[in-house]
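Please fill in the sequence for the structure shown.

STRUCTURE ENCODING:
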């Protein structure tokens, strides 16, 4: 299946999805190719979930200094690792949903798979599991 776009962006990290939104706002028929989840590595498995984990650790560390602030705690503070991970994943998932919303709101087609330039005007999409491969043409590839 071949489809034509004015602009195709390979990768949906912060640079990719923001570029796609801007291209669409400028009137270009736009597509984005993503091999995994919208938002890229930072949003889904890197910076965002890591910062959420670090915040849990920071709160845990601060709890041991409550008496410095005139606060007393009966008992001990213990980490619940499944809940810590759940909070971390929830933060990433919420932001991923925000990127999905931006794609829909700006009428940007999302193709899942690994994008590969086959010539100056064509991006071949190697399918992810259980997906058919697509080939799309474009005026601009970013």
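FILLED IN BY: designer on duty
SEQUENCE:
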């Amino acid at each position: 299946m071949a489809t034509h776009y004015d602009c195709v962006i390979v990768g949906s990290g912060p640079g990719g999805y923001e570029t796609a939104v801007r291209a669409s706002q400028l009137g270009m028929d736009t597509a984005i190719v993503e091999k995994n989840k919208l938002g890229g590595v930072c949003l889904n498995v890197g910076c965002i979930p890591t910062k959420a984990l670090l915040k849990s650790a920071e709160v845990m560390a601060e709890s041991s200094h409550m008496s410095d602030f005139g606060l007393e705690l009966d008992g001990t503070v213990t980490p619940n690792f499944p809940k810590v991970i759940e909070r971390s994943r929830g933060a990433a998932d919420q932001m991923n949903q925000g990127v999905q919303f931006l794609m829909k709101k700006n009428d940007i087609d999302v193709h899942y798979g690994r994008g590969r330039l086959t010539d100056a005007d064509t991006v071949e999409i190697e399918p992810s599991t259980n997906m058919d491969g697509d080939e799309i043409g474009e005026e601009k590839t970013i």
